[in-house]
Amino acid sequence: MSENREPHVAKFVYDFTEGNKDLKDLLGGKGANLAEMTNLGLPVPPGFTITTEACKVYLDSGEEPAALRDEVSAHLDALEQRMGKKLGQADDPLLVSVRSGAKFSMPGMMDTVLNIGLSDASVQGLAQQAGDERFAWDSYRRLIQMFGKTVLGVDGDLFEEALEKAKETKGVTVDTELAAADLKKLVTTFKKIVKKEAGREFPQDPREQMDLAIKAVFDSWNGDRAKLYRRQERIPHDLGTAVNVCSMVFGNLGPDSGTGVAFTRDPASGHQGVYGDYLQNAQGEDVVAGIRNTVPLAELERIDKKSYDQLMQIMETLENHYKDLCDIEFTIERGRLWMLQTRVGKRTAGAAFRIATQLVDQGLIDETEALQRVTGAQLAQLMFPRFDEAAKVGQVARGIAASPGAAVGKAVFDSYTAVKWSRSGEKVILVRRETNPDDLDGMIAAEGILTSRGGKTSHAAVVARGMGKTCVCGAEELEVDTKRRRMTVPGGHVVEEGDVISIDGSSGKVYLGEVPVVPSPVVEYFEGRMHPGADDADELVEAVHRMMAFADRKRRLRVRANADNAEDALRARRFGAQGIGLCRTEHMFLGDRRELVERLILADTEAEREASLKALLPLQKKDFVELFEAMDGLPVTIRLLDPPLHEFLPDITELSVRVALAESRQEPHENELRLLQAVHRLHEQNPMLGLRGVRLGLVIPGLFTMQVRAIAEAAAERKAAKGDPRAEIMIPLVGTVQELEIVRDEADQVVAEVEAATGTSLKLAIGTMIELPRAALTAGQIAEAAEFFSFGTNDLTQTVWGFSRDDVEASFFTAYLEKGIFGVSPFETIDKDGVGSLVKSAAEAGRRTRPDLKLGVCGEHGGDPESVHFFHEVGLDYVSCSPFRIPVARLEAGRAATQSTGSDHR
Hints:
The chain is α/β, with parallel strands linked by helices. The chain is built from 35 helices and 31 strands.
């Protein structure tokens, strides 16, 4: 095996004997693995690889590197000498394939051309040498078809239509029944199509064929389908593709030849066995194109036992060598087996977990490597219920897949009806144009949420993910009429309230009627309803349990929950939460308490304000007692009230209409008029940047001190009951240390009063949420008054980018993603260069001031797999996320602690 693992920068072409599997950056995955199989002594047709560096030069300049042609010529000469024949020579032609091969597998996204070197002259020589005229003309028509479509841009349907016409004329149904004479006529037809559509003759010079094909593969890196695939898979756009030039071996030489694909384990389940497909008398593209029915790979044992036995041995060799599931392409040429490709195979989420634990048990990998073989995204797929794919139900619309899962229920159009029907035992889907905090009760009651507006970070999406509810947002094809309690779907069909619909939060699809749902055993495991090791335990649950145990042993980051009530807190604890990182107290003031907060905000006198605070205090205290009991012995970070003010005020339009109607009817309306004047006075053009957070606490005397008192009294009560409350008070939206100092002084005084009144020593940590750029930039000063920072990355992203989170996803994010400005929404995965740099610098500055400063994050990014790795790298102590994302965060924290650059299972 080659010992030289470092590429030579001036070299653009590598023989298969020169590379190895570690040179994927340079040789692409296909080229690196062809080289590795060559090094292992496996039967690989000779060839060479043009590097990704050559592709980058070509894509940057529009021209191939100056040295490339000479290097290709030298390697072609060496290949011709090894094979004892020349490319395209008339009597016994050497034929080659030209295939793409990027670092990361992009199946079917880029171009391939087979049988290069065939021409009007050499096709006769191939026929003579093979003793099979039909084979030669079949290979030639394939070359013209693939070359015309891939290299010359001819519509592929034209070739397919001509092929179908030829079969109809002959009265046959499959291409293998066409005789040599039929295929010879088809070649003439194909060449005419090329001349007409491409404006040039099909090239007869074999070197011109090869050079044009190489350029076509380079160009295919920037094809629409390749770019779309890279965006979907988050593959960088600047990697380029390698090009593999490989001597042809032929599976279409008759019944003792064929081609196939094989997997060393089942990529769907992870089970060991014989998995794959085989097609006699065919070339490789035929298998994936589906032009003829394949047979199961196991049938090869009957067809050609010698090749089958050799293939099984090679598969075992490759799996042991790569220590993973391998995906293999092979060809049998007249009883001789050739290996055309291997790669670490793609797999389902369930297979990933099963295979990782199987390989540990076999001693092929250790626990550290096993963690690199699974991802949080895969775990999330396993946790959510899904629709039965075999069901036949019509899709009527598609929106944004906002919160995964499968939900079925009767359509309802307001929160009240959702709650009412749910209490009667009905399963409902809450359908709205968009949701707001008033819809919370209905969202809780519903099986899922469907909106015609909004994006992944809209109110509906964020709240649904926090609750583990299925949600589809922004289904713009739907016309939602909440007043008439109906929605109209494309085609004019009207869904009335009570009609059953189904929504898929993993795909964004909306269906009429009921789609059967398959439950997730993984959630039952996390909920404690299924126990690993029990007789009825699913083997997938066993695998997930073991991987989670690996992750928990390895991780440094602790994982907390975003939870606002005891029920969510208890669920979070079952899911492995190590405390609450964010309790949003504004959620406690919705519903019945909203009127009290409204009175407080609009109070004209101190007496009115005091009365509202006095009414709220016991309610808040009860909330916190329940939280401390649910999270006994674990930290509970409580954020003081932080609502955009408009959420707690009457709607200005509705109130104006009420006043106008009262005036027109000459009815008493003093209270409504007074309320309208107050709402006008407090109205804000941009409430998200207005009177909220610490500003609200400073402007409304007694608001924050009431909450601090409720927290302190609840902690004292739990201590008296022999509990272990560990409360942390978080001041929101701080932009300057002076704000924090004022609130902290008031809080310290209240805590001291409660301690004196109860005779209890309370150690309540006081810190702040870093969610404004100025707070991040002055973190060193703020740390003088804060015992902890929690980064609110939702608002920090909003304020750093200047985005209105509720508006931008629906308005222009799709265009930004399509144009490649974003690889992924910055609200979904943290923007490391912008927002991330502020998090990093603020963390460092804070700890310079206060070395024992506790650091966490509680935005949506706390449960995002890629973001968790970033937070590990910058040294945060914990992440906090919605209860259903806790297992994902735990797994990714373990992966971050054991990250290996040698593993990449896209």
